[in-house]
Design brief:
Layout (H helix, E strand, L loop, with lengths): L4 E2 L4 E2 L1 H11 L1 H7 L5 H7 L8 H24 L1 H18 L6 H29 L2 H32 L10 H12 L8 H11 L7 H28 L4 H29 L1 H19 L4 H16 L2 H10 L6 H18 L9 H31 L1
Antiparallel strand pairs: 1-2
Length: about 400
Amino acid sequence: MFYLLDIKMNTLTTFGSFTLLCISSLTIMVGTLLAPGLVSISDGLGIVENSVFLITLPSLGAVVFAPLAGKLIDKYGAYKLLIIGLLLYGLFGTSLYFLNGPTPVFINRFLLGGITAIVMASSTVLISMWYHGEERLNMIAKQGMAVELGGVIFLFLGGLLASLFWGLPLILYLIAGLFLAMLLLFVPPKHPLNTNTEQAVEGRSNTSTKMSLKSVYIVSTLAMTIFFISTVSLPITMNAQQFDEAEIGRLLAFISLVAVATAGFMPKVTKLLTEQKTLALAFIAYGVSYLCFLQASTAFLFFGAVLIGIGFGFTIPLLNHMTVELSEVNVRGRNLSYFTMAVFTGQFLTSFIEYIPGGITNVFIGCTVCSALIAVILLVTSRKTHDRLN
């Protein structure tokens, strides 16, 4: 066993950083991989009703198991938990093919969500251990880019493979095994700095965040709910408009691609506008995107995809960073598990959009109104905080 490490700088090499970013991409794959081929995959698994749970049920599993994951990470270490998480991720993801009927299939998806919570929180803890201050913000921005780039790749491949045979997309879950091998090769289990030194670095590099952790969790839930509604509703609306699965996959992949580019600019935008104003801008983009989705036009569909990708790139990576910056080293695993709960709670809440009166039209209108209200609240509270500090 060997590790590649820049001893002089006490930082990971490019291979180590790339490994953590690859692992982060698995968090979006757990549900969205099935989105392009949702209709055919649900038929293949014997799911006649509530097929949307194939996408959203892992979110509930993540919410339920996230507190336990956080405690285990703080007690036994993120590295050990990540190894276990990656092993189980590949096993549970691919074994779905051999199941049939609502009960075994939904149990599998629920447990896979719990495993994903371990992977998501553990990988972020490792990033926070190896990077500090502005470097950490840049790395978490890259993590957001990796998550959405994974969306680009996995959504495209998921749609393509589902168009050939409904079970083929499930093979992609095995990539967790490759990422596990990369983790063992390129990422050391412990940072060379001791705990006291790390805490000193934290004290010097922590940037002041105006929002409380509770506020960060609430905004994270709202942001993911509004974003993920597009993931579960667009395949259905586009299918009704005679788009095939490959075309649906390409559009969802394009949204992820926009989010990748946006997350890359997020640190610079945050420096220019402050954190809360950047979040407000993101919710404005969310609101306008759903106005575009209401229009029966390919051009508006494309423009809406651009805007909702911008919204994601300016919210989840930034909120992830804010959680890290507001957390002490000894409780970081727990706090990041709560962030995981917030994100996946947002995803799971989208399971119930089909019960909203008026159908997709009212859902999209509701997303626009809610986004506008959240943006106003963020702007008003940001201004009050600025006035109080001055």
